[in-house]
Protein: VOC domain-containing protein
Amino acid sequence: MKESAGNPLHLKSVNHVSLVCRNISESIDFYQNVLGFVPIRRPGSFNFDGAWLFGHGIGIHLLQSENPDSLPKKSVINPKDNHLSFQCESVGNVEKFLKEMGIKYVRALVEEGGILVEQLFFHDPDGFMIEICDCDNLPVVPLVGDVARSCARVNSVQQMVQQQLRAN
Structure:
């Protein structure tokens, strides 16, 4: 890993996101059957209800709320709210799936320099915002000192570097 002032903690990647849930079973069902996550083993030493899932290179740790009725209920889909975003191959196919599942969503379109990015926003069972997009169409443009790359190019370069480091 490159030593730099830009990575003082020597971080490698995002490991997981923890989400507090009203109902673990409903949340597992959503993350498994809508987003394609797979349940994985969770340490048995934990003394609280929860579940771990993994998919798309990231873990989702679901934690059962000790007071589910106290969790805020979100009904308005606001693309400017906190959210977790996933890239997809076809926003049209995702939109069709969401319609078939009866999941309410909001569609957005971003245009930057002639490049279009389609976005779909919807909630998990607890009101946490999910975005599905074709964001890898938009180049990653550093503010200073580097060249523009697409998200897909950045990811492939990072994977190649990691493979080379493992080989050495």
About this structure: The longest strand covers residues 115-123.
